[in-house]
Amino acid sequence: MKKLLSTVAMAALVSFGATGAQAQEPIRIGVLATLEGTYTVLGEDGVRGLKTALAKWNNTAGGRPIEIIIAATDASPDSAVRAARKVVEQDGVDFVIGPLSGSEGIAIRDYAKTQPDVTFINGSSGAMETTYVTPAENFFRYNMDGAQWSVGLGEYIYNEKGYETVATVGEDYSFVYTQVFGFAIDFCKAGGEITERFWVPLGTKDFGSIIAALPDDVDAIYLGLGGGDAVNFLNQYMQAGGEAKLIGGTIMVDGTVLNSKGAAKEALIGTPSAGPQADTWDDPKWQEYVKLYQDTFPEDERFPIPSLLATGYYNSMDAALTCIDQIGGELGEGQADFRQCLATIELDAPNGTITLDDKRQAIGSNFVSEVVQLADGSLATQMVMKVDGINQTLGLDPEAFDAIGLPGRDTPECKSEY
Amino acid sequence: MAVTEHPGGETARQGSGFWPSVWNAPASRWGFAAILLLIPAAAGDFWLLQVYGWTFALGIVALSLQFLGGYGGMVSLAQMTIAGFAGYMVAIFGTSSVEHISLGWPWWLNIPAAIFLAVIFGTITGALAVRTEGIYTIMITLAIAAAFFFFVNQDYVLFNGFSGFNSVLPPTLFGVDWREPTAYYYMTLFFAVLAYGVVLYVSRSPFGLALQGVRDNPRRMAALGFNVTAHRIAAYAFASVIAAVGGLLLVWSNAQVSPGTQSIDWVINILIIAVVGGMSRPIGPFIGAFIFVLLENWSETALAWVGLSPERFKLVIGLGFLAIVLWSRDGVLGIWESWRARSRRDPLTGRAPGDDA
C-alpha cells in the first residue's frame, strides 16, 4: 500500500509539471499517421510528404518555428481518436494534421466537434461522409474523397478498354465504399455493369476463398485494396494462376504497392486506375515537387516518386504553413484568422489547383492513369486522362446525388441514370 | 488468499463484518482516499481524463476478470468483449453520430438496458465456459471474443461495421457535463470505488466464500451440496455487471465504440493488466491499469529521450510487461498453478497443509 501511495503521489506531482509547461514560441502541430498495421508503409510515406513540405518552408512560417509531434494509428477509428487525444490533450498542439485512412477521418470529424478550439486538417483520408455528412466547422480537407478520386476511370475503361462487366473486390470499410461509389457511378452511366461486389476485412492475410469465388465470366476485376492487403492479394492471386484483367483502386496502384518487394506487383503492369496524381506527369510543378521529395530523403529511405499519401500530407502541411505565413504567425482568437485563410485559400498544389467548398472539402483535379514499367525497371503510373474541377457531388445535381444514398456495400446501385 | 482453507482466520474476518473493516481501515488508506479525492486540484485535464480516468475505467473491466480469476479460478478473456458489448448497446439505444441506427432513448432507459443485455451476454458466455477448466476456459472465452470482434467488424445493420459509432457521450445529469475532465474523473473514481467495494463485499459474502470453495475444490463443494455450475455462472453474471459499467466508462471517455474497442489486442491487454497488477486482491487490476496507462502514454516519449526511434514504442511496452511479469513471477501460463500453490501455503509457516501430515 505504501508503494502505491508513493506512486500516486508522484503521479500527482508530475501532473503539476504537465499543466505548467506550455511553449509559447514554436507552432506545434500534431500529426496522425498509420504507423502500425496493414497501412504502415502508407503512413510512413505520408509523414515523408509532410516533412517535404516542412523542408520547403525551412521549418518556419510567419516567423515562428514549426514543431511536429507524430502519433501512430493503425487505420482503426479508435486508434485515431486515441492518437488525436494524445496530441491535443496531452501535448497541447495548436492544430492537427491527419488522419490517413477513411474510417479514421469520420471518427476525427466527430472528435473535432468536441475540440472547437483546435483546427484539424485532414491528411489523406477519403471517406465521403467525413465532410459530406454533418461536417465539423474546424475540419478541413485538401484532398478529394475516394469517389472524386475515381472520376473518369469508369468511362475510360468502358470506352477505351472495352470492359463491359466488372466484379469488385474491396476492403470492407468507408474509404473503399466511397471509391467503388465513384467508380460505379461513372462506369454504370457509361453503360457498364457490376456483376458482383466482394468485401474483405481490412488486414486480411488469406484471400484464398475470395480468389476461388472470383467469377471468370467478367471482363475485368476492380481491386479496392491497399498496403499489405494489396500485396498479399496480388501474391496469392498470381500463385493461384489468376489471369483476369485488373482495374486498380486509387491506393492499389499507388507507389506504396508498386514499390513493394517481389514479383507479384508485375501483374499490375497496364492496369488502369484513377487518383489524385500520375507519377510520371511532366508538369513542371509536379516535377519540382518530386525533386524536392527526392532531395529531402536519402534514396534508400523513400520511394522513387512520392505516393499519393505523401502528396496528401504535403498539400495539407503546405496549406497550413502558407496560411500561417499569410497571417503572420498569429492564429487569432479561437484560431479564427487561421481558419478563415484555410477556408478561402487557393492552393497551388503540385497535382493541380485545389480550392475548398462550403463544407471545407477539396475541389480539384483527378488523373486517370495506367501502370507502366520505367527504364530502370520500376513501376509507376502514367497519365492517360486528366479531369479538372471535380466537386464532391461529382458534377451531379446535389439532389440527384443525395438520392443515390451514402456509399455502402451495395450503394450505389448500378444504373445508367442518376 | 483462499480464506476457505484457513478456518481460524476465516471466522475472525466474517465476525468483523464488512463495514467495520472499512471504518477501521488504517490511516494510510484514509490518506490514500484523500489523495484520490484531491487529485483534480493538482492534475491537468489530460491527466484526469487520459491517465486517471482511463486507469479507473480499464481497472474496472480488469477487476471483473480479477473477480472471476482470483475468486472463481476462471480466467475469462471475454470481459473486454462484454464491456465493448455494453458500449455498443449504449450507442445503439442512445444517441450517436450514426443516426440511422441509434434509437435515441433517454439515459434512464438506455443505460440499464445496455447493462442488462451485457449481463445476459456475459451469463451466456459463462454458461458456455463453466463446463471447461483452466486453459480450455481461456480458449473458449477467447473464441467468443474473437467471434464478436469479427462479427461487429462486418455487421453493418446493427453494429455499423468497421467505423462503429462516434459521438457516444455520457448523459448530462444534474446539469453536469460528465465528459468534462474533473467530472469524468469523479465519475470514474466513484464507479471504481463502488466496484472495488462491491467485489470486496461479495468476496466475503456466503456466495463469495462458496465461490472460493468451488475454486479450491469443486468436488468437495459439490459433495457438500453446493451447485458448482450455478455458482460459477452467477459469478460470470456478477462480473458482467462490473465489466459493463467499465465498458460504458471506456466508451464515454473516447466518445466512440468500434470493433477496435474490443479487438484481440484489447482482450489481451485486460489480461495483462490483471496479471501485472495481481489477481489475488481487487486492488490489483487498478495498479495494473495505472502501469499500463503510463506505459501506453509515455513509451514514445521515453524512446525519444534516449534517442531511439519512437516508432518502436510497442517494444518498450512489451519489455516493460515482460520485466514486471518476470519480476512478479506470475506469467500467464503459470497463473493457474501458482494460485493453487499459493492457496495451499500457510501464510504463517509458509508450508503447504500437506506437509504437516
Give an overview in words:
The complex is a heterodimer of chains A (418) and B (357). With 418 residues, chain A is an alpha/beta fold. Chain A has 2 domains: 224 residues, Response regulator (Rossmann fold), CATH 3.40.50.2300; 172 residues, Response regulator (Rossmann fold). Chain A contains 14 helices and 15 strands. A 6-stranded mixed sheet of chain A has the order 2-3-1-4-5-6. In chain A, strands 11, 12, 13, 14 and 15 form a 5-stranded antiparallel sheet that branches. In chain A, helix 3 packs parallel to helix 4. Chain B is mainly alpha-helical and 357 residues long. Chain B has 15 helices and 2 strands. A two-stranded antiparallel sheet of chain B has the order 1-2. Chain B is globular. The two termini of chain B are 21 Å apart. At the A-B interface, helix 1, strand 3, helix 3 and helix 4 of A face helix 3, helix 4, helix 7, strand 2 and helix 13 of B.
Brief summary of the model shown:
The complex is a heterodimer of chains A (418) and B (357). Chain A is α/β, with parallel strands linked by helices and 418 residues long.
